[in-house]
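Write out this protein's structure.
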Amino acid sequence: MVRCEADKLRQVIVCAPEKEYFQIDNLEAHNIEAVANPEEAKAQHQSLRELAAEAGAEVINLPELAEHPNSVFTRDTALVTPDGFIHLRMGLPSRRGEEDWMAQNLLNLGLEEIARIQAPGTVEGGDIILAGKVAFVGFSPRSNQAGVSQIKPILERAGYQVRIVPTPSPHLHLGGMMSLLTPEDVICTSDWNFQEYLSGFKTHVLPAKEPTSANVISFGEGELVVEASSQETADLLDQAGFKIHLLNLSEFVKGSGGPTCLILPTARG
């Protein structure tokens, strides 16, 4: 289970690219900017899996969902809370079906489904950041008002103070604007009114240059994964005393994804 995204990562679900991620008939429909290089994408994903394992996490690697190239981005498909998982509903129509696929895998792991987002509501996991006593929820192009209205009371019942954060274009998800580094530290971009929403947290602020700049994985205990193109992020966090793994995930940036998009944490603490 997961209470806080900066707690020690114990178990994580990933989906290594094998075939579907490279067989895309309509880039726009899947919100993918360019087809990835298969050899490079596979090697990059393997490096991420190895890093997670070295950090002490059990890495569960699922096969891709047929005809769903975005299934490599497991983060968006579900949300694991302290009480069980929430069955989400994807905002991008071409991704519908991934949430049912992931729900079945979570049930197979023994997790309980505690709630389900119903149509016309949409919520994607990249819009939810669990931060101990606070849950940040992005109201975004992928998580609509009906979905946000459904998930807010679910998270409140789990003991969170819910802060709903408007997530403007060009950000797809809240996770492109901010990430939790420790239970007290947040990295965020400067292109939104973060002071209004991040009270009680220490902020590390970046210019909004790249979509992955503030998208950072926390393995817990100050150990972080930063995408290799985000050198400014790495320098800022290194100076702040964090342990940084600079990882080239360029073939997933082509799919409009950053580091956190590639993992679904199922156990932390």
